[in-house]
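The passage that follows is intended for readers who have already worked through the single-chain material. We present the inputs for a multi-component assembly, then the predicted structure in tokenized form, and finally a short commentary. You are encouraged to pause after the input and sketch how you expect the pieces to fit together before reading on.
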Amino acid sequence: MGKLQESLVGKSVAVLLLLISAFCSGLFACRTFILLPMVNSSAWQYTTYFQTFLEQRQYQVVSYFSLTQDLEDPDLSYMDRRQLQDSLDQLKQTLDSQSTWFRYQVRSSDGSAVLASNLPDGTELNQVVPTVYYASFTPGESTLSHSVMVYEDYSTDTTISVYPEDITDVSSLPPVVIECGIDRNVDLSILDEFSLLANEYTSAEKNFPIYITLSAVSLGVWIIALLFFLWSSGHKAGHDGVILSWQDRIISEAYFLIIACLVALLLYGATLLADYFSIYLYNFYPMQNSDLWLFFAAAAVLVCLLSLILVLFLRTITVRLKAHSLAKTTLLCVIFSWIWRALRDFFLYLPLSWRTAVAFLGYLLIKALFPSLFGFYNPIPHAILNILVLLALCRWTVCLSRLRQGSQAIAAGNLNHQIDTSRMPHDLRALGEDINNISDGLAGAVNEKMKSERFKAELITNVSHDLKTPLTSIINYVNLLKTTQQTDPKAQEYIEVLDRKSQRLKKLTEDLVEASKASTGVLSVNREKIGMAQLIDQALGEWTEKLEERHLSVVSTIPEGETWVYADGRHLWRVIDNLLSNCAKYAMEGTRVYLDLVRGRGQVTLSVKNISREALNIPPERLMERFVRGDESRTTEGSGLGLSIARSLTELQGGTFELTVDGDLFKASVTLPQAN
Amino acid sequence: MYNILICDDDRDIVSALDIYLSSEGYQTVKAYNGKEALKAVEQNNIHLILMDIMMPELDGIRTTAKLREGSNVPIILLTAKSEDADKILGLNIGADDYITKPFNPLEVIARVKSQLRRYTTLGGADKGPGLISVGPISMDDGAKQVTVDGEPVALTPIEYNILKLLLSHPGQVFSSSQIYEQVWNDPAYGSENTVAVHIRHLREKIEINPADPRYLKVVWGLGYKIEKGAN
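Having made your guess, compare it with the prediction:
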């Protein structure tokens, strides 16, 4: 397709076809046009030509009659008589039944006497002609008064309408009557205008469909060639896109002006041509004249030139449209768009509040102009303007609500949401694009964060594997060492240290992994309905003996009935386990540990209070940091991760974890949402 | 004598385990990745496999799956991965037990013994009247005797009654007060944490690792149960 579009041969063929088809359609259209008056009539007798010829003949009869009357004047000079006689002979010859198919009778006003006739002897007029036409005249005057009356056509049994319908006042008619008609046997054996017309009519009936078909076909070819030419215009082999030629760069207005001048010139030529040949159109004889080809050729050439100009015009418009340069090369458009842009830029440069004010003033101004434009009492323009303003406001509001929906979606966490800012008014579009940029930035940040979280989780898994494997060996071999017989008591002591420290290292590693998992949120949380009283019972069951070993007595205050919370049982157990282990490690021996469960306002709070063995000179926030312990000397068995893990796990379950230190009183509170 | 295949990419761990198992009187075969393990199983008559999960060439999970295509031998997975998902995957694919690293060698020995007992001697234990058995735990109500992996366990009457209650409804979760009411035949008025203490003692007697119980499970915040398909 592209090749065809660019090929020079194709274009040349198209131009050639355009010219030929324009010429042909001009030619055939003229011929068709000429034949139109013929085919418009249902028989050759009804053509205007026929009427004209008949009238001419009737005038010839009148002349003949008046000439005969003039010759009867006895005072005529010889020369005049001769001249009149010559004219009379000539007319007689013309009207003779041997040289024409025209048949006539001139009757006196009462119709009793036949004054003149060219009928062969012994024949009646209404036997010879199918239709009789009447005209009357006053002898000595050369005007005719037509009263076309028609006899019935005896030969075909058809009744032909008679007009004028009736002649009521016969006395008003001129006294002498011409009855005339055309012989029903008209053919080319006698060549006169009637036989020729009849012949021409028959051939016209035959030729008209041919000519009209030919014009239609050449018009079709012209249109197809035109479409191809327009389609391929602007494309050139070896170039992509649309190429503008010199005539596509001329300012459109100038181009249109030149085209208009050329068209006007050609149309003027056409009128001249029509004037020159118009006589032939009214007169029938030249139809036979072979000179008429000149008319046809001239008309066809004119049509051809017109079509050429039209094609050039359409071509440049098409190319300009294809290259999107029509507006740019049209001076009016350029000027208007420049003014429009200047105004718009000025308007947009104003702050929004000023713009609103200007728009409102403009609205008022237009309203104020309406009475002078449409009259004082015309409400329609006001209504239309108000509806337009309402529509504009509605559009603004719709866009605003779309922005709001978009920002809500983004706020709800759908960071990939993009607000469609096309077709929004200028200010809202700017706002929408800003929101889109924010959401893009947020999405990027969140992705970045997710990536780093995943990285952390992987790191934890790998590090824990890498730490645990050598630790396993250490523990195992220390154990093996223990089973060997060591004679040196010092060696046994060293092995004991190794054993203790490797166990501690094991605990630390496990806690560290647990703490990282809890704080990075890698752990899965399955929240379900958990009975807090039950859980505290279970926890105390696990810890009672260890606490008793340290002479710590537990005082628990638990409300009647079960207290349900939404939490992950395993994680919550870990929290309480850590808190109790904290008590066992750091509480002063011989004191009491208070466990209080309080519910209310949809929340359940478990607090664990104990008296610290060491002076707690650290703020509670520090206590929850990783590796911070109540004893600065760090000699106890803890890892310093227990409270940090407890806090992270509580927060993972949607709860809050609080520490308060009041002197030596240490209090930890876990608050969780209550379940119904 | 039983042949035990030890498979881990860390040679030190393999030899440590070798020392422990040999001192218990087991024959050991060593392998350092999954492929070697498969070869060793083909060439020797292996009675139990101790295998690491994270190994080069073929990891423990895939090796287990391959082994299970044609063998019923007990497999204990050693793993540094302590995620629940890894344990569940390992057990589902056909392992019989798992031990997380760093492990206590005595626990490994205990688990090896337990698995071997069940694989060799307890395969088709028939149940007499009054005999309740869930997984490795059997209770002869007539003789008032409880065995775990065939080893008799000495229980106090209260511990016995608690275990009987849980064993007769495997999988069902009993809260402390329910257990108290059933075992003590008294309404529970705040004495539930006695139950918890007894359960802990009971766990210490029947579980290999009471901190990570396999049979008598604590459902935190809800109660206690005997795992239905405990192995």
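Commentary: Chain B has two domains: 3-123, 131-226. Chain B touches chain A through 38 residues (CB under 8 Å). How closely did your sketch match?
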